């Protein structure tokens, strides 16, 4: 069932699935509102799949992608000879969706003159094909969607208020991805599995995983899907470190933590072939003990014997921590992400300590 494709365990998604289950039982018009990339068509398909109309057609139409002069013919159909180029009869989308569901995507981009005609169709439950003198009765459930603020469009005279109320019988508002960040790990896992057959299954290191969970995702689920697909394509069956991904492949705020150059994409460069099936497996432990031993050699009391004059434990521990950070930064040529892995710290925690000890 399409409802199972709405991934996530957050409260927002759980409530959304419950709303879809209830709305699917009705034949009333539905208006789906939400930012671009939040999955409006997926929700429309779930409404259709859970309805009594599921055995019939689900017909999508992008109202913003069809030129205004062709939209009427596309929705209502036309007769042969109705206009130049009409070389045969054409059945419109309303008729194609008979006893099924018609999904009018980006309804906010529909021209005003078409809004008038659509309103009449919804009221009369019949369509007039272009060039025909006879109306055709229709039995269709209409689900519309838009990322526009229709109430603001109404105030500006860009959308008809009567059409809005005709469509908005059951409103469904989709949350943005930044409002349901706890679902990001499950979404990543789902998208990796989608591309596993084609590209194999990569793994994400801790820094990459943390960065993806902190990012705001202005493009929502579509942006996340595209990024995961991109990484699966360029790093098949590999463990992906944030610091190894070319900055050009990462979203703007994450790009500074990527690589300026990547030898992995030089023609003829060897590719990693090790297959690792765990999704968010942390990086294997680095030899941090060697770093500790070298740091301790420059600190008093490192031989486990206290000096006769005693020492300030707090200051001593701070000195050890500071020297460890310095050594880790030296080991990784100043790369904060690699240093954090050496010290088994989160990158953000290490940055705080670097600022604390004024090591920047």
Supply database-style keywords:
alpha/beta, 15 helices, 10% strand, two-stranded antiparallel sheet, elongated, Rossmann fold, 360 residues, Arc Repressor Mutant, subunit A
Walk me through the topology.
Elements: H1 11-24, E1 30-33, H2 40-49, E2 58-62, H3 68-76, E3 77-78, E4 90-91, H4 93-96, E5 101-105, H5 112-124, E6 126-127, E7 136-137, E8 141-146, H6 150-155, H7 161-167, E9 170-173, H8 184-194, H9 196-199, E10 203-204, H10 206-214, H11 220-234, E11 239-240, H12 288-296, H13 313-331, H14 336-342, H15 347-356
Parallel strand pairs: 1-8, 1-9, 2-5, 5-8, 10-11
Antiparallel strand pairs: 3-4, 6-7
What does this structure look like?
The protein has 15 helices and 11 strands. With 360 residues, the chain is an alpha/beta fold. It has 3 domains: 174 residues, P-loop containing nucleotide triphosphate hydrolases (Rossmann fold, 3-Layer(aba) Sandwich), CATH 3.40.50; 85 residues, Helicase, Ruva Protein, domain 3, CATH 1.10.8; 69 residues, Arc Repressor Mutant, subunit A. The strands form 4 sheets. A 5-stranded parallel beta sheet has the order 2-5-8-1-9. A two-stranded antiparallel ribbon has the order 3-4. A hairpin with an 8-residue loop joins strand 6 and strand 7. Helix 1 crosses helix 2, helix 13 crosses helix 14 and helix 14 crosses helix 15. The longest helix is centred in the C-terminal third of the chain and has 19 residues. The relative contact order is 0.10.
């Amino acid at each position: 069932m399409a409802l199972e494709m709405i991934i996530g365990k957050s409260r927002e998604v759980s409530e959304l699935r419950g709303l879809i289950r209830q709305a699917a039982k009705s034949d009333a018009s539905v208006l789906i509102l939400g930012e671009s990339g939040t999955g409006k068509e997926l929700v429309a398909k779930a409404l259709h799949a859970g309805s009594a109309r599921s055995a019939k057609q689900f017909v999508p139409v992008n109202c913003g992608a069809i030129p205004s002069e062709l939209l009427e013919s596309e929705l209502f159909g036309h007769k042969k000879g109705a206009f130049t180029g009409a070389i045969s009869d054409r059945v419109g989308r309303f008729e194609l969706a008979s006893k099924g569901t018609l999904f009018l995507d980006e309804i906010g981009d529909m021209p005003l003159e078409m809004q008038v005609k659509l309103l009449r169709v919804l009221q009369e439950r019949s369509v007039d094909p272009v060039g025909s003198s006879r109306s055709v009765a229709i039995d269709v459930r209409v689900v519309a969607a838009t990322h526009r603020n229709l109430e603001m469009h109404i105030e500006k005279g860009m959308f008809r208020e009567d059409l809005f109320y005709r469509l908005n019988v059951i409103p469904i508002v989709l949350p943005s991805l930044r409002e349901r960040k706890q679902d990001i790990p499950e979404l990543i896992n789902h998208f990796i599995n989608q591309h596993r057959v084609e590209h194999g299954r990569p793994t994400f290191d801790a820094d990459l995983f943390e960065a993806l969970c902190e990012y705001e995702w202005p493009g929502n689920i579509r942006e996340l899907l595209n990024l995961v697909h991109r990484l699966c394509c360029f790093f098949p069956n590999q463990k992906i470190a944030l610091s190894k991904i070319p900055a050009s492949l990462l979203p703007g705020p994450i790009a500074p933590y990527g690589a300026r150059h990547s030898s992995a994409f030089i023609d003829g460069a060897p590719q990693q072939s090790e297959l690792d099936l765990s999704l968010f497996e942390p990086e294997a432990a680095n030899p941090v003990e060697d770093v500790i031993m070298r740091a301790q050699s420059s600190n008093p009391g490192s031989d486990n014997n206290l000096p006769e004059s005693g020492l300030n434990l707090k200051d001593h521990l701070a000195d050890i921590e500071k020297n460890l950070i310095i050594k880790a930064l030296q080991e990784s040529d100043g790369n904060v992400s690699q240093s954090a892995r050496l010290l088994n710290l989160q990158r953000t925690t290490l940055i705080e300590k670097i600022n604390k000890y004024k090591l920047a």
